[in-house]
Amino acid sequence: MTTVNLPVINSNLSARSSIGFDEKLAQNGFELKAAGVDTLQVNVGKLCNQACKHCHVDASPKRTEIMPREIVEDCLNVLRRYKITTLDITGGAPELNPNFRYFVREARNAGAKVIVRHNLTVMFEAEQEDLPEFFTENEAEVVSSLPYFLGAQTDAQRGAGVFDKSIEALKRLNAVGYGIDEKLILNLVYNPVGAFLPPAQKAIEKDFKRELKVRYDVVFNNLFTITNMPIARYLEWLRRSKNEHVYMQKLVNAFNPATVDGLMCRSLISVDWRGNLYDCDFNQMLDLTLESHLPQTIADFDFAKLANRRIVTDAHCFGCTAGAGSSCGGAVAD
Amino acid sequence: MHYYNEEDLNRFGDIAKYKPELFEKFMAWYQACQEEGALSRREKALIGLAVAVTVQCPYCIDAFTNSALENGSNMEQMTEAMHLASAIRGGASLIHGIQSHNAHDKVSMS
């Protein structure tokens, strides 16, 4: 624990450390570049039925940004043309975009695997009750946040009553075969409910599986541990609770070189509701666009130019390299 | 001015200043004790928290509260661990009451 003193200063944009992320990478012999584009991660809008305290999108029922049909078509054209293997749909609550179901069906017709970042409670909104059946028909992989297996922690982060609704939604997904049938994958996401790092993924997954089965008779496939990124609504909370400095220092001190190869930005392109391209969903929220010489919109997508691009970074990237690392698929190192 | 400063937790390494080889040995031992073994990291973090509360070290309480959370424990579990350690501490006092009984018996007519 011979820690290096790394003072942290604030900026208007995001929490910053005195050592830059690229500098830290260079010290460890890395230059962060993409290694292909396996996944198109599309944020179809910021409208959500929830307003979680850790949300890096600042999504809520009040947001109006929604991806229009023509941008959905542009995304589908890219999937078809370049045979990109995975479409990862996120939001907001992506199901609230009126083009959502069309997008999923057409992506499946194009041969892509479809992942839906599904918040569980949206299933109880008007005209969304049949989501389990829709997911089943399209064999969509469902990834859902459940910060903890107890109600108090989950509701503290995601809002009062969210836990009970989430459990009910998980039961409905189980009832149609999710988490049971090998083609119907149900993965859960653990986010720390506060200013600390996630536990070891396999260890907490074991706890979740045991507790959810015993307490609620709910089953699922995998638990992904995701580190909270110091941006947007979560950063505001860090500042209000006077945890920003300590949290940033924790992320920097926990830098793990073994995470770099598996960082999600190396294999995906993020698309916003207007069709702009980014290295990841976090850069999207910070409006950190791709390097200026690269294609900037989904309409201009060019695989050859994007496949080995240099990744744009900032202080928040320390969130993905801390400890066992973090990605939309959970930890990236042991 | 406080005798205890939160920032000092991150200055623990400064203890190496005048005797680095001893601190190095201590850190190797300290860190090895927390590795996954016959006990899980989570169990070890709970033991660490319970001991930290018992020895009333504010730095250790801060560090092991975070460690317990980062190993997936919740406050109900952490509170049970703290109660157990405190109860043992209470029991350790109380068992010495037998010494009082013995002293009383020695000087008293039965």
Rg of chain A, Å, rounded: 19 Å
Please tell me the overall pLDDT of chain A.
92
Q: What is the share of helical residues of chain B?
A: 55-70%
Largest sheet of chain B: none
Distance between the termini of chain A: 20 Å
> What's the number of structural domains of chain A?
1
Strand coverage percent of chain A: 5-15%
Shape of chain B: extended
**How does CATH name the architecture of chain A?**
Alpha-Beta Barrel
The CATH class designation of the largest domain in chain B is Mainly Alpha
List unreliable stretches of 5+ residues of chain A: 1-16
Shape of chain A: globular
Please state the structural category of chain B.
mainly alpha
Classify the helix fraction of chain A into a percent range: 25-40%
Whole-number total of structural domains of chain B: 2
Count of separate DSSP helical elements of chain B: 5
Layout: helices, strands, pairs:
The complex is a heterodimer of chains A (334) and B (110).
Chain A: E1 8-9, E2 16-17, H1 21-27, E3 39-43, H2 69-82, E4 86-90, H3 100-109, E5 113-117, H4 131-138, E6 141-145, H5 151-158, H6 162-175, E7 186-190, H7 201-216, E8 222-225, H8 232-240, H9 244-253, E9 268-271, E10 277-278, H10 281-286, H11 303-306, H12 318-321
Parallel strand pairs in A: 3-4, 3-9, 4-5, 5-6, 6-7, 7-8
Antiparallel strand pairs in A: 1-2, 9-10
Chain B: H1 20-34, H2 41-54, H3 58-70, H4 75-95, H5 97-107
Helix pairs in contact in B: 2-3, 2-4
